[in-house]
Inverse folding.
């Protein structure tokens, strides 16, 4: 028997129970949960392949170290799925490349250490009891390569990362073979169309009616917008305004850099939000620059090489060497001339940096967008919730991510 595959179609079906706009990790997760719920799903992706815009730019990290109980619960639900992915999707042997390598947030000043202490106290109140608070010396005893300037750290060993391409393909493959999902409602299916650009969502009276695309029009009872940074543009075609600020974020990929400890956790500097983790016998490194202004949604997203030097050059204010001095040696030893490259994508940032999940505007229109840099880890719990809201299995009044909510200010989440 041939292994299960993604069901692609060239011709647009005339109807669907649900049309999902966008074939990134969130659109594919939506297809998985909707097909599992017994719905006939059609996923429309403008690009020539699934999971090729923002999704592959991510570092694939997941963590429960959040600053509010709702996102902790949403990501926890996702991690439980990742841990049992092969069984829960019916894809025997499917390997997500998952590693619980830990997330270590390092403080260089008493100010951020106080903030960390306060956060860990609150996390414990919310039931997240396995985050450790370490002194600088305790942290260095475990990771001797940490700088003497690290005065304290918070650490959760069960946080980690996975391979986002395997995750996206896994959702799409399981959705395409819905009968094999262990707890599926019978009758569900998913069909994927790549190279299919959605032009507009059409509304008839107070309900969505259809979606027009570069391949014609499809009628649907429900439309879920999962178009990443383009989600606000698509919602606007149905007369719905949502606030999403696409903000460029880059990732530096350095394969084959022996000075990077292969067993290091995701290591984050609390003051600057510069961070890195081991990958490809080298590392992935990032910097969540809070001064980066938002802009229009972009495809493709250009890279800027100077940005990489800001992480690598020990003289920079957000150099990786501030927390881990071996980066100084890597620079002196020629790290800039090894085979590194950059990738760029956009965070789709909402005013409170939490996603928009569920119904909005005309009946039948739903959002699954605005993940603000957390769509890999939160996209599983978020997509399950969107589908449960659509099928009436979740209570709309209890939805903390409803798109028409009032926003609260957040201070703790730096990534
Ligand atoms: C540098 C960086 C690092 C990150 N690291 C992490 C991390 O470690 N952990 C984490 O959880 N998250 C991380 N993220 C965030 C994560 O990558 C995103 O939240 C996630 O990929 C969003 O997935 P998506 O499917 O919504 O968007 P996308 O992957 O952008 O997919 C949306 C799709 O919609 C399609 N589309 C757009 N318009 C149309 C149209 N008109 N018709 C049809 N299709 C359309 C696009 O072509 C695209 O394929 C990171 C992001 C960046 C940029």
């Amino acid at each position: 028997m041939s292994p299960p595959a993604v069901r692609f179609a060239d011709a647009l079906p005339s109807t669907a129970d649900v049309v999902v706009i966008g074939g990134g990790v969130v659109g594919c997760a939506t297809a998985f949960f909707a097909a599992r719920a017994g719905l006939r799903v059609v996923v429309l992706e403008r690009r020539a392949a699934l999971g090729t815009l923002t999704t592959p730019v991510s570092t694939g990290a997941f963590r429960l170290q959040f600053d509010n109980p709702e996102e902790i619960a949403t990501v926890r639900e996702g991690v439980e799925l990742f841990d049992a992915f092969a069984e829960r999707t019916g894809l025997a042997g499917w390997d997500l490349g998952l590693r619980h390598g830990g997330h270590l947030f390092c403080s260089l000043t008493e100010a951020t250490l106080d903030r960390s202490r306060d956060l860990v106290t609150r996390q414990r109140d919310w039931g997240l009891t396995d985050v450790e608070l370490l002194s600088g010396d305790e942290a260095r005893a475990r990771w001797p390569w940490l700088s003497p300037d690290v005065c304290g750290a918070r650490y959760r060993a069960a946080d980690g990362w996975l391979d986002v391409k395997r995750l996206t393909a896994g959702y799409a493959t399981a959705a395409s073979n819905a009968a094999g999902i262990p707890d599926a409602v019978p009758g569900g299916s998913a069909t994927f169309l790549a190279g299919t650009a959605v032009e507009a969502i059409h509304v008839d009276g107070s309900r969505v009616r259809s979606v027009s695309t570069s391949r014609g029009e499809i009628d649907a009872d429900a439309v879920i917008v999962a178009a990443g940074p383009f989600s606000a543009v698509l919602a606007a075609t149905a007369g719905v305004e949502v606030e999403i600020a696409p903000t460029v974020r880059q990732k530096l990929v350095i394969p084959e850099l022996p000075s990077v400890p292969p067993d290091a956790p995701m290591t984050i500097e609390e003051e600057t939000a510069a961070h890195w983790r081991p990958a490809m016998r080298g590392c992935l490194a990032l910097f969540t620059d809070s001064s980066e202004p938002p802009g229009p949604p972009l495809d493709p997203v250009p890279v800027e090489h100077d940005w990489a030097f800001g992480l690598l050059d020990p003289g920079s204010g957000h150099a990786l060497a501030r927390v881990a001095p071996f980066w100084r040696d890597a620079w002196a030893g020629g790290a800039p001339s090894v085979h590194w490259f950059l990738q760029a994508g956009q965070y789709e940032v909402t005013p409170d940096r939490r996603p928009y999940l569920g119904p909005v505007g005309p009946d039948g229109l739903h959002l699954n967008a605005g993940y603000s840099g957390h769509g890999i880890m939160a996209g599983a719990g978020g997509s399950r919730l969107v589908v449960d809201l659509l099928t009436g299995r979740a209570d709309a009044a209890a939805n903390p991510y409803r798109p028409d909510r009032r926003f609260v200010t957040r201070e703790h989440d730096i990534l």
In short: The CA atoms of residues 86 and 168 lie 13 Å apart.
